[in-house]
Specification:
six-stranded mixed sheet; globular; Rossmann fold; Isoleucyl-tRNA Synthetase, domain 2; 920 residues; alpha/beta
């Protein structure tokens, strides 16, 4: 090998070294197995990179993440573990879309880019920007020395991940965990999109609390910070045992609310959550503009007391006509001022208080969100479902969870942490995690943006309502035996034929224009009895109207079948399969000119028609029922299809909304391994992953949702350990921002001081869960350390060359000849154990600090200096003199120096891969 240069200049080495690593293929565990570096049976160690957003470039927080994860990966790879680090990037949905939109406006090319370009052309611009950002991020990641397996790189919006997303959406929908509902959501007027609860940034600001009555004759004073919403009040809630209990159940028609002629009907309702010590002890209920009030509305409705809902603020942030003629079109602020002035003039305003108020703002758009009622898609986190074995592994791998037991998503998220199956580092974040889950509401997953995974739901508005009458076939022999016939043919009994004859007596030829029957004999025979006498009505058979296929359970008892009704029958169908073929059938016949249809089919057909037409959930409450032998009448004006691929036929329109970016991010640990491809060897070999290393600031956004999605989808945990790093702040502890001018660019630091110095500055002094301070001076200090290591290696190399020796890579532990030799070897052994033990327990900073102390103080400053003057034979009486009378043994410690250098380079390599590789 060539002798080391006089000084270490990172720029001369780093790019070439990384290129050589890539060419070796050793970042890929498959190559490591081929070359005998590890084996198929070796312990796996897997990390999936938290995918950086394609909104720009990497910052110091990303650099810290890359440095920490690369230390873990390189260490385990050196141990011989089957090690994999999967790279990828995140499409970041609204963040990327809004950035591109702003860029296009700022360029002067467009005023309203989305309107002017249209969806397809606009998305082309976004994709172009995302690709450019991706390329920059990949280059930056390589500059950081990240030993990622680039052959497995993924993107959250690529085709494979899109298939994963659609598959999981469909699965959750069919299990009743995704639903479309009308609820109060957080609405960004500026962004014209919903925001989830976790995307809100709460800020404190001055506000006023107003105390007033709706009318002078109204008996109760209410208090609010948002008087403009009171134009849409429908009730006043009071404590059931409080001072207003005598009014509970009364309804008041209140006139002249906010303006002359504006009438509200206000019911007095009881709610135990009303705090009598707050405000006036009574709460004006605005179901349309408060999530809390909306829940009261639902609660009252369930009790048979519909208090109603009045929306007075629109999506544009302006007052609607429901607010009254004098308010329509006003902004919220204008309406508030007008309403308060009206209260003053009418003598209804009793007092005003200055308070500090927490308000939710959109993290992305920075505006105060409006609670508005909208139909959106949600994940139900409280609904219990039967946990099943993984379709991939065939088993359930969750501690203390048995197949068939019922859990909610929230309960599974809690279970895997309470049982220790997932460990959070540092442990204090357990409490934060559980507190978040306790307060978790249904997750609104639909977004009114274009860039992202379009919701895999299609709607078909029928040209005219389809009028369907369903007849269940007459009693069959299988019915008598109380077994499930499914697709098996079973004849009608005599009683079954009589049932059909009795039904036919009430049928007129003019009632129907088409007759369709399942092609199974029991249905066909029933149809003939019902309709054969009418020459104008031709019976058309269609296999899509068949009973559900019970698969291997065909012929089994109803009791046995009941265990599978909600989850689907082995080697048979689920009721959602029946629904999909039924939707296909209805879509096709809806294209005909006439719309009065008779269907003769089965109990399973009836169940899905109840779901399609009457919106009944396909759960146990419906699925455990059986259809009677009577006509069931339905009117259907719209069809909905949920699937991975678009439905067949014309007239279908896909839902224009996209999914919350955290939906796809939540699948990351298994979508990168090609789920739902059940033949994926990567999914088999590398899931669950070992560690998720990420910032504590996305514990809720991402970590919790990965646990939610993975435990549900695979019956596995996504990872065994969550390692949370803190924020990188400036030397004064401030957050880095453009406005403060304190941003430290990682690429600038790499260019100036080298990658290893930049990495060490982010690793040493950083502990899990705690923010760290960073300065350029700190990075410069670690450049000096890299130079120290280089100079030490150069001195050892020169020492060996003086003895006509070369550095040997594979050198055994040498014999200590002096006390100093024994001391340095003992210290080297001690620090090796400290580093290994602490890297095993992920105490990276402590391992690095102890190694730095040894390298600088013990080895470089102490032993190397002794090696210059101490003979190797210091304990011997033998003196070997050269021809000039000098001691030939002086400084001859080459083997120990060689061994110490090799060991130190190996220990430092995970932390400082470039300088150690250059020396090696």
């Amino acid at each position: 090998m060539e002798s080391l240069a006089k000084s270490y200049e990172p720029k001369k080495y780093e790019d070439d070294i990384y290129e050589s690593w890539e060419k070796s293929g050793l970042f890929n565990p498959d190559v490591c197995i081929e070359k005998g570096i590890t084996t198929e049976d070796s312990k796996p160690f897997i990390i999936v990179l938290p995918p950086p957003n394609v909104t720009g470039t990497l910052h110091m927080g990303h650099a810290a993440m890359l440095a920490i994860e690369d230390v873990m990966i390189r260490y385990h790879r050196m141990k011989g573990d089957k090690t994999l680090w999967v790279p990828g990037t995140d499409h970041a949905a609204v963040a990327t879309e809004s950035k591109v939109e702003k860029m296009l406006i700022d360029s002067g090319e467009f005023k309203k880019p989305k309107e002017e370009l249209g969806r397809e052309k606009f998305l082309e611009r976004v994709n172009q920007f995302a690709q450019e950002s991706h390329d920059t991020i990949v280059n930056q990641s390589k500059k950081m020395g990240s030993s990622l397996d680039w052959s497995r790189e993924a993107f959250t919006l690529d085709d494979k991940r899109n298939l994963s997303v659609k598959t999981v959406f469909k699965k959750m929908y069919e299990d009743g965990l995704i639903y479309r509902g009308y609820r109060v959501i957080n609405w960004s007027v500026k962004g014209q999109s919903t925001c989830s609860d976790d995307e809100l940034v709460h800020i404190e600001r001055p506000a006023k609390m107003y105390y007033f009555k709706y009318h002078k004759d109204f008996p109760i004073t209410i208090a609010t910070t948002r008087p403009e919403t009171k134009l849409g009040d429908t009730a006043v809630a009071v404590n059931p045992t409080g001072k207003y209990q005598k009014y509970i159940g009364q309804e008041f028609e209140v006139t002249d609310v906010g303006q002359k002629g504006h009438i509200l009907k206000i019911k007095i309702i009881s709610d135990e959550h009303v705090d009598e010590s707050f405000g006036t002890g009574a709460l004006g209920v605005t179901p349309a503009h408060s999530p809390v009030d909306f829940e009261m509305y639902l609660k009252q409705k369930a009790l048979g007391n519909d208090i109603g809902l009045i929306q007075v603020i629109g999506e544009d942030g302006k007052m609607t006509s429901n607010a009254g003629s004098e308010y329509v079109g006003l902004s919220v602020e204008e309406a508030r001022e007008k309403f308060v002035n009206y209260l003053r003039v009418e003598g209804l305003l009793e007092k005003e208080e200055d308070i500090m108020q927490n308000v939710g703002t959109s993290d992305r758009f920075k505006d105060v969100v409006e609670p508005l009622p909208k139909t959106q898609w949600f994940v139900d986190v409280n609904k219990k479902f039967r946990v099943q074995s993984s379709e991939f592994t065939g088993k359930l791998e969750l501690n203390d969870v048995k197949e068939g037991e019922e859990y909610s998503l929230k309960e599974l998220m809690q279970k895997v942490v309470t049982t220790g199956q997932i460990k959070i580092v540092p442990e204090r974040f357990d409490k934060v995690y559980f507190n978040w889950i306790d307060n978790l509401r249904d997750w609104c997953i639909s977004r009114q943006i274009w860039y992202g995974h379009q919701i895999p739901v299609w709607y078909k508005k029928l040209r005219k309502p389809l009028k369907v009458t369903l007849f269940r076939h007459g009693e069959s022999e299988a019915n008598v035996q109380k077994i499930g016939a499914g697709h098996m043919d079973t004849p009608l009994t005599d009683y079954g034929r009589q049932q059909a004859k009795d039904l036919s007596a009430n049928i007129k030829e003019s009632d129907f224009e088409y007759v369709y029957s399942s092609d199974l004999n029991r249905a066909v025979d029933t149809a003939k009895i019902l309709f054969d006498k009418y020459k104008t009505l031709e019976i058309k058979c269609d296999s899509r109207l068949r009973e559900i296929d019970f698969g291997v359970l065909t012929g089994q008892s109803g009791e046995e079948l009941s265990k599978y009704r909600e989850i689907g029958f082995p080697e048979g169908e689920s009721y959602h399969d029946v629904k999909n073929r039924m939707v296909s059938f209805l879509s096709e016949i809806s294209e005909k000119d006439k719309n009065n249809v008779a269907i003769v089919a089965h109990s399973g057909t009836w169940k899905v028609l109840e779901h399609i037409a009457n919106k009944q959930p396909l759960d146990s409450s419906l699925l455990n029922q059986s259809a009677e032998r009577k006509p069931y009448n339905y009117t259907i004006d719209e069809l909905i299809y949920v699937g991975v691929d678009a439905p067949e036929g014309d007239g279908w329109t896909q839902d224009p909304d996209t999914l919350d970016t955290w939906f796809s991010a939540g699948l990351w640990t298994f979508s990168v391994f090609d789920y739902p491809n059940l033949d994926s060897q990567d999914l088999k070999n590398f899931h669950p992953t070992s560690v998720l290393e990420t910032g504590y600031d996305i514990l809720f956004f991402w970590v919790a949702r990965m646990i939610l999605m993975t435990t549900y989808t695979l019956g596995q945990v996504p990872f065994e350990t969550v390692y949370l790093h803190g924020l990188v702040r400036d030397e004064q502890g401030r957050k880095m921002s453009k406005s403060l001018g304190n941003i430290i660019n990682p690429l600038d630091m790499i260019d100036k001081y080298g990658t290893d110095a930049t990495r060490l500055s982010l690793l040493l002094g950083s502990t899990p869960g705690n923010d760290m301070k960073l300065s350029e001076e700190k990075i410069g200090g670690f450049r000096n350390f890299a130079n120290k290591l280089w100079n030490m290696a150069r001195f050892i190399e020169m020492t060996l060359e003086a003895e006509e020796k070369k550095l040997v890579k594979d050198i055994s532990l040498p014999e200590a000849k002096t006390l100093s030799d024994k001391w340095i070897l003992q210290k080297l052994n001690e620090v090796s154990n400290v580093v290994v033990n602490n890297l095993d327990s992920m105490n990276l900073s402590y391992a690095g600090e102890k190694l730095r102390d040894f390298t600088w103080n013990d080895l470089a400053d102490w032993y190397l200096e002794i090696a210059k003057i101490e003979p190797s034979f210091a304990l011997s009486d033998v003196k070997v003199m050269d021809d000039k009378g000098a001691s030939a043994g002086k400084g001859s410690k080459s083997e120990i120096l060689n061994y110490a250098l090799n060991t130190v380079l190996k220990l430092w390599h995970p932390f400082m891969p470039f300088v150690t590789e250059a020396i090696w």
